[in-house]
Write a structure and sequence with these properties.
The protein is an alpha+beta fold and 486 residues long. The protein folds into three domains: 161 residues; 89 residues, Helix Hairpins; 162 residues, Histidine kinase-like ATPase, C-terminal domain (Heat Shock Protein 90, 2-Layer Sandwich), CATH 3.30.565. It is 47% helix and 20% strand. The protein contains eight helices and 15 strands. A hairpin with a 7-residue loop joins strand 1 and strand 2. Helix 1 runs antiparallel to helix 2, helix 3 packs antiparallel against helix 4 and helix 6 packs antiparallel against helix 8. The longest helix is centred in the N-terminal third of the chain and has 49 residues. It is rod-shaped.
């Protein structure tokens, strides 16, 4: 089994590829060498067969007689062994000539007359042979010998050919083995060099801490193209972790700040009541002020708990049973809840919605989303103004809710921070300017939990539009317009 290592796997792959290449080279090289050697032997056999056929002479007369010029016999093909075999048979079936060592009873596979030659392998006198059978004409024949054909057999030992094949195989195998070793060494060097940026990246990643969230920048020429997506993904992840860590740290600081003020006031009130004896009315007044601060603490804890649960659910930590809720009806219930707040400032609501556009959600959560957005719209709208609520279908089977006010608007620099926890547009953080800065954070967490999206568009001096999109369960094109006012 290959170890769980990139380097080991790459080396194993290179070695295996080179082994396949080496074995293939040996096989292909051996087959090619055998083919070429056999072709050379066959060419030599054909040459010898034609040569000895030309040494046969036919005499004039009827019947003619055949003779053989023995003194002009060519040398053997393999001069080291000198064991060539040959035999010439006349058209009448008589042996014209044959080699002295021609074996008795040799089984010669005669080709049909319409074929010129035939090669075959055989063993004789303990030696392997390659033989050729060929029909050759009588050269210079006249009279009855004209157009007659001789049957010529010529064979030569193939020991030298087999030796050459073995030598070629050993040579090819040796070269392949040397190349395999060189390739493995080069692969080791190349793989080690190629993985160096990965090891360096691992060392750089080990230096990441809460004080250092950035990967060191590497020149484009020193960073392999394969690591670019990885480094970019790591940096994106680190940016997200840094933002989350910063938000968590700011959340703790802001929560401590929000808790510190009412606790300090509560402590001061209690100490003041205990400094000297007081009347029952003074004790009652002090206790009522203390209860107001306790109520503020309770509300803050409730909002923090609601935010924690919403973010936990958005992260997949909780499972809930959801019902189908009509969006327009949910918006109308939210309007009824904030109507008293709007009545004091003579603010009117215009609801324009799709009556049967619905989503799967918890009705309380959905209503809380609209209430938070409406309270912010009321808080920053001028008196005697109008807030528009539009429920409409959006692309990709989503429902869109737009809540538009005509108030102060949000500066562009603040627009990207409005959904952060404890963020307020009023830097004074005065208690009479609004809540704790958790409403929009809870709203975004709930919208994210339902697989939706929320964003804001604003223009200073003209107003703000909050846009929420949620996946729908059903969409009908029937709409209704209604004016809700007091």
């Amino acid at each position: 089994m290959i170890p769980n290592s990139i380097k080991a796997r790459l080396i194993a792959a290179v070695v295996l590829a080179q082994l396949v290449l080496g074995i293939g080279s040996v096989i292909v090289g051996g087959m090619y060498t055998q083919k070429r050697l056999r072709f050379a032997v066959d060419t030599a056999l054909h040459s010898r067969a034609v040569t000895i056929a030309a040494l046969v002479r036919a005499t004039d007369g009827n019947p003619y007689r055949l003779s053989f010029e023995t003194r002009m016999m060519p040398p053997p093909i393999d001069r080291r062994i000198r064991q060539d075999l040959y035999q010439i048979i006349s058209p009448t079936g008589e042996i014209v000539v044959q080699s002295p060592n021609f074996p008795v009873g040799l089984d010669i596979p005669l080709p049909p007359p319409d074929h010129n030659n035939r090669h075959w392998w055989f063993d004789a006198a303990g030696l392997p042979y390659r033989g050729l059978i060929e029909y050759a004409p009588l050269f210079g024949a006249t009279g009855d010998a004209r157009n007659q054909r001789l049957l010529v057999m010529y064979a030569t030992p193939t020991i030298y050919m087999h030796e050459q094949m073995r030598e070629a195989g050993v040579y090819i195998a040796g070269v392949s083995l040397v190349l395999l070793l060189l390739t493995v060494l080069l692969a080791l060097w190349g793989i080690r060099r190629g993985l160096r940026p990965l090891h360096k990246l691992a060392e750089q990643a080990g230096s990441i801490s809460t004080r250092n969230w950035d990967l060191p920048q590497v020149a484009a020429g020193d960073r392999p193209a394969e690591l670019v997506p990885l480094t970019n993904a790591m940096q994106t992840m680190l940016d997200g972790l840094r933002e989350s860590f910063t938000q968590q740290r700011e959340f703790l600081a802001n929560a401590a700040h929000e808790l510190k003020t009412p606790i300090a006031i509560l402590k001061s009130t209690m100490q003041s009541l205990l400094q000297r004896p007081r009347s029952s009315d003074e004790y009652r007044t002090g206790l009522e002020e203390s209860l107001e601060d306790v109520a503020r603490l309770e509300k803050l804890v409730h909002w923090m708990l609601r935010l924690a649960r919403a973010e936990q659910w958005a992260a997949g930590g909780l499972r809930r049973d959801l019902d189908r809720v009509e969006v327009a009806e949910s918006c109308e219930r939210a309007l009824n809840r904030v109507r008293g707040l709007a009545k004091d400032r003579n603010i009117q609501f215009l609801l324009n919605g799709n009556l049967e556009l619905s989503v799967y959600a918890d009705s309380d959560d959905l209503e809380l989303i609209w209430v938070n957005l409406l309270e912010n719209a009321i808080r920053y709208s001028p008196d005697n103004s109008e807030i528009e609520v539009a429920v409409e279908p959006a692309a990709n089977e989503r429902a869109r809710v737009r809540i538009t006010d005509h108030g102060l608007g949000i500066p562009e620099a603040e627009l990207h921070h409005i959904f952060e926890r404890f963020h307020r547009g009023d830097p004074s953080r005065a208690r009479d300017t609004g809540g704790f800065g958790l409403g929009l954070a809870i709203t975004k967490a709930l919208v994210d939990a339902y697989g939706g999206s929320i964003h804001a568009t604003s223009e200073v001096g003209k107003g703000t539009c909050m846009i929420v999109e949620l996946p729908v369960t059903q969409s009908v094109d029937r709409t209704v317009a209604a004016v809700h006012q007091e």
